[in-house]
Amino acid sequence: MAPPRDTPTFSYEITANVPNVSSPEAEKVSFSKDRKHLKCVWPDGHESEYHLEWLRNNRMPEREELRKHFNTDSLVKDDLILWDAGMLQDKIPLYDCKAVMNDDTTLFKYLYSLYQYGLVLLDDGPVRQDFLFELATRIGWFQKTYLGDINNLKVEDNPISVGCTAKGLYIHTDLPYLRSSPDIQALHCLEQSPSGGMSTFADGFHAVKQLKRDSPDAFRVLTTFPMRFYDEGVADFGEYCFGFSAPMIKMLD
């Protein structure tokens, strides 16, 4: 969807004083006397010193090492389990909330199931809005968005989003118009409607693998042709307008 003509656009120019280094290769490399530090002299004359442990912990993996962690079709990582409705209907991995929050072994199993299936359920959680924040910080870093720390959705008389209605939604991916969309999303039901409220999930990896097998031309288009994702509206901080362009399916290099 293209932005409306009257949408204001902004451009920013960022400048910085960066040394003009024609080559990333150091001109001279040597070890310190204790053999625990690496000294580098760069083409512009400045020197750097790195601890060997820091270099080991921050090194970039070689391409061959990366390939070891991926299947030959480059679509899925090792240990991922591709699924469809027949495989996972009424069999979604389920964990007790208190155990996940208090026991590291259960937390590991919970996260590993999430890694394998991309979907996991948490049972018997507390009925309060701030619990999602506690769960997020239990797992890792909490990513804020323009919607705030937590986006509270409820049916409204004058909704600003289809998510604030009682209408059913088709299968979708949230926030594709952001450059960095969420890696993990958590949904916490505080008050269940007397009827309805069923959720539908799909395995995107499984769908893409089938698409590549059955329709290679469509697969090529969806992995190479950039799509325009766009959203505008009003949040607590005021009006917003977001747009991002990327292929519908992003492949690993």
Detailed description of the structure:
The protein has 253 residues and is α+β, with helices and mostly antiparallel strands. It has a domain at 28-59. Helices cover 26% and strands 16% of the residues. It has eight helices and seven strands; from the N terminus they run βββαααβααβαααββ. The chain has helices at 52-58, 63-68, 85-88, 97-102, 104-117, 131-139, 204-214, 216-224, and strands at residues 28-31, 37-41, 47-51, 94-96, 121-123, 226-235, 238-247. It has a three-stranded antiparallel sheet with strand order 1-2-3. A two-stranded parallel ribbon has the order 4-5. Strands 6-7 form a two-stranded antiparallel ribbon. Helix 7 crosses helix 8 (216-224). The protein is extended, with a radius of gyration of 24 Å.
